[in-house]
Design a protein that fits this description.
By secondary structure, this protein is an alpha+beta fold. The chain has a single domain, classed as Zincin-like (2-Layer Sandwich), CATH 3.30.2010. 36% of the residues lie in helices and 20% in strands. It is built from five helices and six strands; from the N terminus they run E-H-E-E-H-E-H-H-E-E-H. The strands form two sheets. The protein has a four-stranded mixed sheet. A hairpin with a 4-residue loop joins strand 5 and strand 6. Helix 1 packs across helix 4. It is globular, with a radius of gyration of 15 Å. The relative contact order is 0.18.
Length: 125
């Protein structure tokens, strides 16, 4: 099995900044300086991107506030047109709860059963 390789993704950082600016009202709870972006190579996952949280045990041990990492999978993400890349990043950002606690929201959450993909469509349309 091939080893997955990661590198920083400044181009994805710029997409995060653009999405944060465009949808500032919906994403005001996100500290974009605590959202880091990496690109992976060699992953077997079928996702375009995924978001990683910071568990409480790490925040406590390191005595730091929450961070999030958005990983884009080179094999899938890099082939997308620009608008789909932006939608994918928005989807990942919507997993961050209003508390910015280091936790993640599931795809379907809340008493109303909000679905992240439905939120993406609502925001764009």
């Amino acid at each position: 099995m091939a080893k997955v390789r990661y590198e920083k993704a400044p181009d994805v950082d710029r997409i995060v900044q653009a999405v944060m600016a465009r949808f500032a009202g919906k994403l005001a709870h996100i500290n974009q300086f605590r959202v880091l972006c990496v690109r992976s190579y060699g992953s077997q996952a079928r996702a375009y991107a995924r978001i990683w949280s910071m568990p409480q045990v790490w925040k406590t041990a390191l005595e730091i506030d929450a961070f999030y990492v958005i990983e884009v999978l080179h094999e899938h993400f890099d082939k997308l047109p620009a608008e789909q890349k932006e939608r994918t990043i928005l989807h990942e950002l919507l997993h961050i709860p209003k508390t910015f606690s280091g936790a993640l929201l599931p795809h379907v959450y809340g008493k109303d059963g909000l679905h992240i993909e439905e939120m993406v469509k609502e925001i764009y349309e």
